[in-house]
Automatic annotation (TrEMBL):
<feature type="region of interest" description="Disordered">
    <location>
        <begin position="1"/>
        <end position="28"/>
    </location>
</feature>
<protein>
    <submittedName>
        <fullName>Uncharacterized protein</fullName>
    </submittedName>
</protein>
<feature type="compositionally biased region" description="Basic and acidic residues">
    <location>
        <begin position="1"/>
        <end position="23"/>
    </location>
</feature>
<dbReference type="InterPro" id="IPR027417">
    <property type="entry name" value="P-loop_NTPase"/>
</dbReference>
Length: 60
């Protein structure tokens, strides 16, 4: 699954993220990790997810 598609799943491109949204990301070790980001609007949930997936920060 592409990074863009993963970002869609966590709400980066959708107008509103759902609290039950989760993300699966495979490490190079072959392990699968599930991430659940909870929190109020505007606290950085998507920024942390983008950082995790791309090793980059979202710029304003």
């Amino acid at each position: 699954m592409s990074v863009e598609r993963k970002l869609d799943r966590v709400g980066h491109r959708s107008p509103r993220a759902r609290p039950d949204t989760h993300l699966r990301h495979a490490h190079s070790s072959g392990k699968e990790v599930n991430i659940l980001a909870l929190g109020h609007r505007g606290v950085g949930k998507t920024a942390l997810t983008v950082r995790y997936l791309t090793k980059r920060f979202i710029s304003d």
